[in-house]
Design a protein that fits this description.
With about 475 residues, the protein is of the alpha+beta class. It contains ten helices and 16 strands.
Length: about 475
């Protein structure tokens, strides 16, 4: 049996639970509210004196003090009266409190059978009858009133004391720089990606190392590492969104995409181990290598040119450009159309967008149709281009495939990521059109469907053509060249 041991402590584990939550709330008018669930810690790992959560609290304290100039104070209580007195005093001061509670007591949690699992909620207010206003963003519960009896087994609380004025303005550039550093660590760590590559080549040699038995699958170092890679990229994307959504749009899309792929791959591995069938492992090794290479390319393309590019690119180095200096030029695609995406009960063609008789519902304004991607070469001849926008979607699932953008000097590979047309974005694409999905056989509408937009930016160049991916499940409706004004 081989052992998969990684020397890797993920900065993102704490970051995803802590800093991202703050970024969601720091610009609001009311006092700061920390509302996100913490770890659920198995009862066997808990101790009455500290619940085995000191490492997390130390990381959280570090992040709070570093980015928000906020002090985190810990308190331990032995009875309800002691807790209530402390809560009343702190809430009068405007200090929100994180409270450790038993999951069994929370009415919205659905964890009634898991009475020994510790959970964290935020208490950020008190009613006149001394009930507590609580929040739990993970459960989408942001203004729930609970009695002290509802909040059972309280042993620890953590509250924030503001140093100076009540203002939460994080230094987002510092956070971004540290996230970039973490990406570099993931790529270069001695026992990280190299061990993943070895794993890809010897999948079943590690099987016993990550053997599934009751409740133990999540403890595998390999699966923990995959979870860290997934959460880290998605957390980083959220930080960039909070910093400047437009400025970082392309890298946000890429980070969400690779994060989702790491998460999905982890689920595939878990399924293969649980079911223990060869068919479930087909292609996993090759898929893992693709993910590693994609993640390495993501790091290099983002970090190598980030500052030189004016923080405004994904791909090669681009320059910071005022939107008023650019315009969007439509690429004529009619001669490449090979699929009918829009139809109606009385007016439809072929087998539908997905080959099964389903269409985007059409009205008189809709003239778009689309290209089902089969390695077509689409001529652009766009001079002074700094990027392209692609309108499209996928059918029968979410797809991420390589395609080529050709300039005067060379061809370069990029990723084309499109979510399923009947689901909301998984890769972080922008939704540019929402329609009804039409069943041409029955005439019924089958719910919403979407067309998405992916933007790719690069250094100013003459773009000769693009070569679409060999994936007929990806469809393109429009291509726009982003060009500099003369």
């Amino acid at each position: 049996m081989k052992e998969f041991n990684i020397i890797h402590t993920s900065y993102f584990d704490c970051l995803e639970d802590c800093i991202v939550s703050m970024l969601n709330y720091y610009d609001k008018k009311y006092d700061f509210i920390f509302c996100r669930s913490w770890r659920v810690i198995p009862w066997e790992e808990q101790t009455y004196n500290a619940f085995n959560i000191k490492p997390d609290i130390q990381n959280i304290k570090y992040l709070l003090e570093k980015y928000y100039h906020v002090h985190l104070q810990e308190n331990i209580f032995h009875n309800c009266n002691e807790f209530c007195g402390f809560m009343e005093l702190q809430l009068k001061k405007g200090n929100p409190v994180i409270a450790g509670v038993d999951m069994y007591s929370l009415p919205w949690s659905g964890y009634c059978g898991k009475i020994h699992e510790l959970h964290y909620i935020v208490i950020h207010g008190m009613t006149e009858d001394r009930r507590y206003i609580t929040a739990d963003i993970t459960q989408n519960m942001q203004s729930v009133v609970l009695t002290v009896d509802d909040i059972s087994m309280i042993r620890h609380t953590y509250h924030f004391e503001l140093n100076g004025e009540k203002e939460f303005s994080p230094d987002t550039q510092v956070i971004i720089d540290e996230c970039k550093s973490q990406l570099q660590t993931d790529v270069e760590v001695k026992n990280g990606y190299r061990k993943l590559r070895e794993f890809a080549e010897n999948f079943w040699d590690y099987k016993e190392e990550i053997q599934v038995h009751s409740g133990a699958i999540e403890t595998s170092p390999f699966l923990k590492y995959l979870l860290s890679l997934s959460k880290g990229r998605i957390a980083f994307a959220k930080i960039l969104e909070a910093a400047d959504r437009e400025e970082y749009y392309d890298i946000i899309t890429s980070l969400k995409s690779i994060g989702a792929q790491w998460g999905n791959f982890r689920l595939q591995i878990m399924k293969a181990l649980i079911q223990n069938t060869d068919s479930d492992t087909a292609g996993l090794s090759g898929h893992l290598i693709e993910l590693i290479e994609g993640d390495e390319m993501l790091y290099r393309s983002f970090t190598d040119d980030f500052h030189a590019a004016g923080n405004n690119h994904y791909g090669n180095a681009s320059i910071a450009v005022d939107k008023e200096q650019t315009f969007e030029a439509e690429v004529i695609l009619e001669k490449y159309f090979n699929n009918t995406g829009f139809g109606s009960y009385r007016n439809f063609e072929g087998l539908g967008f997905d080959g099964c008789g389903f269409f985007y519902a059409k009205d008189d304004k809709h003239k778009e149709d689309n290209i089902s991607c089969r390695s077509q070469k689409v001529v652009m001849n766009a001079k002074d281009a700094i990027g392209i926008k692609l309108w499209g979607s996928a059918e029968k699932g979410n797809f991420s495939e390589k395609f080529i953008i050709a300039s005067q000097n060379k061809e370069k590979e990029y990723k084309l990521n499109f979510s399923d047309w009947r689901e909301e974005s998984i890769f972080g694409e922008k939704i540019v059109k929402t329609c009804q999905c039409l069943n041409s056989k029955t005439g019924k509408n089958e719910g919403d469907c979407y067309i998405f937009e992916q933007t790719i930016r690069f250094e100013t160049d003459f773009i000769s053509y693009i070569i679409l991916p060999e994936c007929e499940n990806i469809h393109l409706f429009r291509i726009l060249a982003i060009r500099m004004k003369s």
